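Field: sequence (string)
Field: structure_tokens (string)

Example rows 1 and 2, in order.
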Amino acid sequence: MSTALVEQTDTINALLRRADTGDRRAIDALRGECEAAPELWKEFGNIARQVRLKLIGKISGANDVVGEAVAREVATLRRAWAGEEPMPLETALTERIATNWLNLHYVEAKYLQALGELTFEEDTWHCRRIEQAERRYLRAIRELAQVRKIQQPAVQVNIGERQINVAG
């Protein structure tokens, strides 16, 4: 990364931290940065990405290398799930799958960290949390599969007087 880009990123991050406290000058300065570089509006407005980054931060803690590795892995999975030319709905669903995938692994890791020190009630709570995360993850996968199935064109074949309809 170029020195200028690092400095710009550091400046924007400092402004974001100040804006998070309600600093009006920082908010106005951020608006100016976004007007100068409109891709920042998209970056700040990408809530799915923001949620993913928060989850990655929770998973990696202060270890930036682990955070980068997890971010790269989830990006690879998102591209694979989305396919070559995803429709907007497919993109939205792959974002949901990625978030749920991260969350499922996060709650499983939290459970494993606490294993052996849990009361029966705490163990039950963790297991329910894992089951809920797994249901959300699998539901998002099913929704993507269903959308893709609906998008496939139906084919009609006429053989003599018989008509056969075949879904793609």
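Row 2 begins here:
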Amino acid sequence: MRTAPVVKPTTRIPVRPILLAVVVVGLAMAGLALLAEAMSSDGGTIYLANINSGSKGPVVQPNIEVVGYGTATTPAERAVVQILVVRDVPFGDEPQPTASTVGNTPVPGGNRNSLGPVIDSLMSVGVDEKDVAVLTSPSLISVCNNYSRCSSARIDVTVDQPTLDRLNSIVDAVGTEAAQAGMTVQDVGVGYSVADCSALTRKAREAATTDAQKRAADQADVLGVALGKLLVSSELAPTSPRDATGCTVPQPGFGDSWWTAGSAGLTVPAFNPSAPAEASVTVQVSLAYAIGETTA
């Protein structure tokens, strides 16, 4: 009986997957090498190409993106003045008026630490009593040498159609009477407002857009390129809260509550005795333009 030798079929090595694996490993090594070079360079930047051969979406074209700022102001229709007064008496204690005279002449400070004469000083400069509110609370900041015998009171005064002279007369009247009564004016703040900020916001937006357009044109000129069509327009979110009409909600300054942890003071910005009594709105607009042909 004849037997023929059994020949095993030749095993084929898959070349394509191996080549693909080699390419992938090579690209990975190249990427790691570039990354290592970027990390070891002296602040240089290494740009890696983003290859997306299978994508059918539109390619983002180079563009010029700028941000414009616009602020619109108008005379305030109302102001709320807040004056924080520190007294050398415990919270909840109202000092009794004391007569203090030399001969028949009254001596200033007879009503020491009493808020009565301070409120009366506001009436003397034409403030209506209904426009005055006094807030006392242990949460108000208090600064004195003996904390157990220190308390604060905040006097809020509402002023319609405020002027800078009017506001300064109110602050000066309270400061003078408080000093005579042995008290200290710790903080003074004021918040300006108008009934409706819609028109003011529109004016600020127009100013911000004009500013952004000029910035874009200047940047294109510096780069030596033509400014193409407008691609994107967006308005950045306000940096401070706004009410329903677009008016900025008054916010206290940093220094109004740092004296004592967990305490509070003013709820409006610090008063600038030389700044106009104005309400303002600020808007930021972002524009992106396509880059056209070079102008050179």
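free_text_note (row 2): Residues 38-59, 99-107 have pLDDT under 50 and may be disordered.
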